[in-house]
Amino acid sequence: QKEDIEVTLLPAGHCPGSVMFLFEGENGTVLYTGDFRLAKGEAARMELLHSGTRVKDIQSVYLDTTFCDPKFYHIPSREECLNGILELVRSWTSLTRYHVVWLNCKAAYGYEYLFINLSEELGIKVHVNKLDMFRNMPEILYHVTTDRHTQIHACRHPRDDEYFRGNRLPCGMTCQNGTPLHIISIKPSTMWFGERIK
Name one GO cellular component term (predicted). Predict the structure, then answer.
């Protein structure tokens, strides 16, 4: 038997390029997704989920996601997380220019929203190891830098945690102008949050 199926890719909001698949055929409509992050009301603005003024009738939703587990019943909104991180980073970096924040990001992509918002709100660029991974995302290039002399770092090293214990950043920075740095670490991770929710 043959059946024509229309496949539509919808943004999953997880990391750049992440998608959900909407399959539509004679036997119904199915939405398949891995990890996704959509703000309230965001799905309502996705025109491809609608037919005229109605939401498409989706018979099945397949969630192949890390967070389909009771311990992740409550995940704070992206806005709540950003506001909490902004408040912490602002209060720390305003103490002196030697007060530095290390964003301990475990994945290569997916933190662009955080980098852009911290940079815009605080006027501080985020140090990363290399810019080439962001070349196809020009909107972030203004907010990141390879200059280590900044107060917000998202630089990485294969043994990040070990480096941090020595009160130095993964890029090797320990002081500026001979003055030791005061470093705090923030781990923006849903997995980490879920494991510690109690």
Answer: nucleus
- The answer to whether the beta carbons of residues 170 and 156 sit under 8 Å apart is yes
pLDDT digits (tens, 9 = 90+) for 46-56: 888 888 888 88
Number of domains in the chain: 2
Asked if residues 124 and 152 have their Cβ atoms less than 8 Å apart, the reply is: yes
pTM, full prediction: 0.74
Number of other residues whose CB lies within 10 A of the CB of residue 173: 18
Question: In sequence order, what E strands does 60-130 have?
Answer: 60-63, 99-103, 126-127
What is the extent of the structural domain holding 133?
A: 78-186
Summarize pLDDT for 14-61 with one digit per residue, the tens: 877 889 999 999 989 999 998 888 777 887 888 888 888 888 899 999
Domain match, 101 and 141 both: yes
- The answer to whether 181 and 167 have CB atoms below 8 angstroms apart is yes
Same domain for 82 and 176? yes
